[in-house]
Amino acid sequence: MSYPLTALIEEIRRVVPLSELDITLLGTLFKPWLLKKGDYFVQQGQICQHVGFIQTGLVRYFVNQDGNEKIYSFGLESDFVCDYESFLSQEPCRRTIQAIEDSSLVVISSASLQRLFAELTYGERFGRVVIEQIFVKTIGQLVSLYTDSPEVRYQAFLDEYPTLSARITQYHIASYVGVKPQSLSRIRARWAGKDYTRLSSPE
Q1: What domain of life is recorded for the organism (predicted)?
Q2: Which of 75, 104, 149, 150 could join 81 in a cystine, given CB atoms 3.0 to 4.6 angstroms apart?
Q3: DSSP 3-state assignment of 175?
Q4: What's the structural domain count of the chain?
Q5: What torsion do the CA atoms of 59, 16, 14, 127 make, to the nearest 10 degrees?
Q6: Is 198 domain-assigned?
Q7: Within 13 Å of residue 50, how many CA atoms lie on the same side as its CB?
């Protein structure tokens, strides 16, 4: 194995046990992919051909509506990255995934992923659990996008990505929250001096 898969192995072991043969299989099926800052994992209108695992770096998921970018998720170290809707259906993406930092990934193609599920000792269980996690996260993101206030979405950002503020711009955070950067500044200003750590409902 010419590139390390330690983080990937540890992440899969959170879900299922891995034998030495399983680890060898992972090394055969996953391939390295480097993204420079600004490079695209996949763009809106393309067909997503890979599932990736981020070893180092950071990506953003966004849609472009009438020339306006709307960020709805981020992917960072030890996260899987993919436009699963496009990957599974082999239809063009309705969203874009772009590197915010220089990023080192390992990726697996659709055919190799099917082989992984078939040959990994607990491959079917791993696939089922991962798909369930993706489904729950995606539904949560969609519900939040349409029902939560900006203040609640900002709190959710801080809860889900507690160390990310130092790595991205205020524009990125504002886009995720669903407001202009100046509106995000006002939200932060309103919070200044308030002694609470979690916001559970709109003001």
Answers
A1: Bacteria
A2: 75
A3: helix
A4: 2
A5: 30
A6: no
A7: 19
Rounded CA separation 48/83 (Å): 6
Structure tokens, 106: 């390992």
d(CA 21, CA 73): 34
Q: What's the mean pLDDT when you consider all of the chain?
A: 89
Going by pLDDT thresholds of 50, 70 and 90, the confidence category of residue 2 is very low
Would you state the pLDDT for residue 197? 46
The model's pLDDT over 86-144, given as tens digits with 9 standing for 90+, comes to 998 999 999 999 999 999 999 999 999 999 999 999 999 998 898 888 888 878 877 88
Residue 173 has, within 13 A of its CA and on its CB side, a CA count of: 24
Q: Residues 25, 112: one domain?
A: yes
Tokens of 66: 């009438």
Return the structure tokens found at 77.
């170290």
E strand or H helix at 59, and its extent? Answer: strand 58-65
| 130 and 163 co-located in one domain | no
Strands 50-56 and 80-81: antiparallel
Name the residue with tokens 């519900």.
Answer: 143
Q: Using CA atoms, how far apart are residues 132 and 153, in angstroms rounded to an integer?
A: 23
As a whole number of angstroms, the distance between CA 48 and CA 2 comes to 25
The one-letter code for the residue type at 10 is E
**Contact by Cβ (8 Å): 107, 52:** yes
Token reading at 108? 């697996």
> What's the CA gap between 47 and 95, in Å, rounded?
10
Quote the domain boundaries for residue 99: 6-147
